[in-house]
Amino acid sequence: MVNVTVKDQIKKVGRMLKDPYETRTLMGNIKDFFVTVLRVVIIIGTSFVILSPVIGMVAESLMTKTDLIDPMVFVIPREITLEKYQLDLERLDYFKTLGRTIFYTVSLTAIQILICSMAGYGFARFEFPFKKLLFGCVVVMIVIPAHSIMLPLYMSFRSFNIFGLLPNDINMMATVWPMYILTIFGCGVKAGLYIYIFNQFFRGLPKEIEEAALVDGAGIWYTYFNIMLKNAMPAVITVTVFSVVWQFNDTFYSNVFRVPDDWIISKKLSTLVSNIANIDRIIDTNVQQQYLDAGIIMVLVPIVIIYLLLQRYFIEGVERSGIVG
Fold first, then answer.
1. Deepest of 106, 140, 179, 315, by most Cβ within 10 A of its Cβ?
2. Looking at the structure, do residues 91 and 204 belong to the same domain, yes or no?
């Protein structure tokens, strides 16, 4: 019976090889199979490279000191402990600092959405002198390294004065005001990229929408806020995700302007190891790394939650705004 079945299969394959259509079908199926296998291998490999450090941090943060030095323990601890998280909650003043960070991040994001969307809409729909030159400046804002303007930024807000109109210079260092001023004037963190996103999105919307609103008697501001901005929600979601993540994790501008650690939890995380060493007298570097891993996980959790909630809208916004790479 087995021999008959094998012979039948051989004959079937032979007939398929003789028939050009069947041959193409067979080769297509083989090609699809190998493409699928290659795709799965690439996805698994990429996921491993990205997730393995995070999995390692989670595992080490849950280990006891005994598990940490035990060569037989790998990834999965024998005894799970939340001691590192408990101490980090206290040393980071986690909930209070996280609340301030969320307020700081959300307020800056809201301002960026308003200012950058207005700028993007203006570039997409209106003609004005030096339009191409100004849009070129927007592109320069995207490509120029922030470190190259670090000193001018510091000097500007170290002795802040609006065209010399104020009677005395104001030292804005060690406050959050420099970030708000930059954001209000469209020069905040990655503002050039956000303007570009909104410009690309508004250019893709049909002009008939505005023409119909104009015929109905709607003004420019009414059309922008009640029609165009509502239709640009995918772009708004994209900018929201980008802005929240970058503002939440910002340490460059916060260090330049010496923003207090209590306002940015990612900056306060950088002092966690020294606090634990000085206050709790934990000097073992391996154990210190455990506490740092636990702190990193605690800082990552809010951002991951936000991304998971907005993932579908974020991907749609990226596709429709024409961002690649």
1. 179
2. yes
